[in-house]
Specification:
CATH superfamily: SGNH hydrolase
Helix content: 40-55%
Strand content: 5-15%
Low-confidence stretches: 231-239
Strand order of the largest sheet: 6-5-7-10-11
Oligomer: single chain
Mean pLDDT: 87
Order of helices and strands: HEEEEEHHEHEHEEHHHHEHHEHHH
Number of domains: 1
Number of strands: 11
Structural class: alpha/beta
Radius of gyration: 22 Å
Largest sheet: 5 strands, parallel
Shape: globular
Distance between the termini: 75 Å
CATH topology: Rossmann fold
């Protein structure tokens, strides 16, 4: 009886002081390796502080019917953590801002725009592709937008950053065709009963202050024992000597990753074409580029011995142009915005951070800019908004 009283007292005390811990939001997936757990909810305390709720389909989004109502243009946005954006209040993430801007533009002509957030934390380009295949089409989108960042691209093989793709699917190119590697072919085709019970336990822990504290303590102890306790993030990922491969598309180590990514984008484009759906790639910026301190940016560029920090962007844009794939680059606009307004767009608001996810300002800038570009250059979206269109590419 005393033990029960003690436990309840600790639980009450932690709740009274509003002691919060980051919840569990992930689960295993037989195809993607991992995904966000349907109906998960809890506090997100890493980098930003917010309370996140995942819907019944594992999306950081509202519930919606699979078939869009009449007069609705549906846009599917797919990508990694910068898309799912669990770390930001949902109404202030860039996907929600994109939805508001597009809807406001289309409403005078009697249309509604519904943007579906199909992001997944830590997704590679392969996982983005598989999400389009397995989840996007049931929502009947007329436009598919894939947000791409260079770290997602570098996870296209198991060679560059193997620790980042442990347990995740990877494709190889054999005779010009995408094929799953051995690990991917042998992934289980169904979730086990053990994982089901683990998910239920995670939901329970998320609702308890005490259990969340014990979970965090257990993880920290395991990290100390195994020597994997993470130190504070360095001022720039560029301090890691391996990081140069994520900035220079011409170094030999990246060529296999580039080939796989380009093959995946061609498959995504072809599948969209078959369904009569418009396909758009959006290039996310990186904090080292879109920082207001131009001297620091130049110093970072010199430290990596690069002639430019935009080579990745230019290569993807050239690829898109040569293959009829629409590409929006956020990089120049966000860099200019940061410099003109002397603000940092990544990491905690008000701090001079060049690593981390978009902060509230970064989300707002990205959402408004993607909406502006789509309204001006997407044939599908400009039509419902009654806009004069300036297409991305010439018709194929």
């Amino acid at each position: 009886m005393c033990t029960v009283v003690l436990i309840l007292g600790v639980e009450y005390g932690l709740g009274l002081t509003q002691t919060r811990f980051t919840g569990s939001f992930y689960t295993s997936d037989p195809k993607l390796g991992h995904t966000v757990r349907p109906n998960a909810e809890g506090w997100w305390m890493d980098e930003f502080v917010t309370y996140a709720r995942v819907n019944s389909d594992g999306l950081n989004d509202r519930e919606r019917p699979l078939t869009p109502p009449p007069g609705t243009l549906r846009v599917a946005v797919i990508g990694s953590s910068q898309v799912i954006c669990l770390q930001m209040p949902r109404e202030r993430n860039w996907v929600s801002i994109l939805n508001k801007d597009l809807s406001a533009a289309a409403r005078p002509r009697g249309w509604n725009v519904d943007v579906v957030n199909l992001g997944g934390s830590g997704f590679s380009v392969a996982q983005i592709y598989m999400t389009m295949q397995d989840k996007a089409w049931k929502y009947h989108p007329q436009v598919v937008v894939s947000l791409v960042d260079t770290w997602a691209m570098m996870k296209a093989t198991r060679k560059l950053f193997p620790e980042e793709v442990t347990g995740s699917p990877v494709y190889l190119l054999e005779n010009g065709k995408l094929v799953p590697d051995d690990f991917t072919r042998n992934m289980p085709n169904a979730r086990g009963l053990r994982q089901v019970w683990t998910d239920r336990a995670s939901d329970l822990i998320n609702r308890s202050y005490l259990l969340s504290l014990l979970r965090m303590a257990g993880r920290r102890s395991a990290e100390v024992i195994t020597g994997t306790l993470k130190s504070p993030a360095p001022a720039s990922v560029g301090l890691d000597p391996r990081a140069r491969v994520s900035w220079d598309p011409e170094v030999p180590e990246t060529q296999e990753a580039w080939a796989v990514c380009e093959a995946i984008w061609l498959e995504m484009k072809a599948e969209c074409n078959r369904r009569g759906v418009e396909f758009v790639i959006v290039l996310a910026d990186r904090g080292e580029v879109s920082q207001p301190d131009q001297a620091a940016r130049l110093a970072f560029q010199r430290r990596l011995n690069l002639s430019s920090l935009e080579e990745m962007e230019h290569r993807i844009e050239r690829f898109g142009t040569s293959h009829g794939i629409s590409v929006i680059s956020l990089i120049p606009y966000m860099a200019s915005y940061a410099a003109d307004n002397n603000v940092y767009l990544h990491g905690p608001e008000g701090k001079k951070a060049v690593v981390g996810h978009w902060n509230e300002t970064g989300n707002a800038v990205a959402g408004h800019e993607v909406a502006r570009e789509l309204l001006e250059r997407s044939l599908t979206i400009a039509q419902v908004a009654g806009r004069r269109v300036h297409p991305f590419t010439s018709p194929e």
